[in-house]
Amino acid sequence: MGTIKIADFGWSVYSPKEGWRETLCGTLDYLPPEMVTGDVHDYWVDIWSLGILCYEFCCGVPPFEAGTHEKTYNWIKDIDLEFPSHLSTDARDLITQILVRDPIKWISLQ
């Protein structure tokens, strides 16, 4: 039907109620700051993951990949984001509009 869907069911959860979650789950490089700091989170963390995917598709590596788990966690918490010089201004703009700490400031999927 012309629709692309990306899924990783390794950490999927059945949750019959809408709302906030407090569990830490997912692939380390894709965790949003809310999960790293232990804050509550909701489905908006999927938008964060989309920003990580955009970065990885353009650069070949995740943006916060570091030598240790602790360093990766710190880079995610601080949103220590660096771009390679070959990345276009438009790509940088899109990614930086998604990878922000405040989910309310994320761009919408529309």
Structure classification = mainly alpha
Total helical elements: 4
Q: What would you call the shape?
A: globular
- Share of β-strand residues: under 5%
Radius of gyration, in Å, reads 14 Å
Number of strands: 0
Q: Tell me the series of helices and strands, N- to C-terminal.
A: HHHH
Mean pLDDT: 81
Main β sheet profile: none
Number of domains: 1
- The CATH architecture term is Orthogonal Bundle
Percent of residues in helices comes to: 25-40%
CATH fold-level topology = Transferase(Phosphotransferase), domain 1
| CATH class identity | Mainly Alpha
CATH superfamily: Transferase(Phosphotransferase) domain 1
N-to-C span: 18 Å
Low-confidence stretches: none
Protein described:
The protein has 110 residues and is an all-alpha fold. The protein contains 4 helices and no strands. The radius of gyration is 14 Å and the shape is globular.
Short account of what is shown:
The protein is mainly α and 110 residues long. Helices cover 36% and strands 0% of the residues. The chain contains four helices and no strands.
Features:
110 residues, mainly alpha, Transferase(Phosphotransferase), domain 1, 36% helix
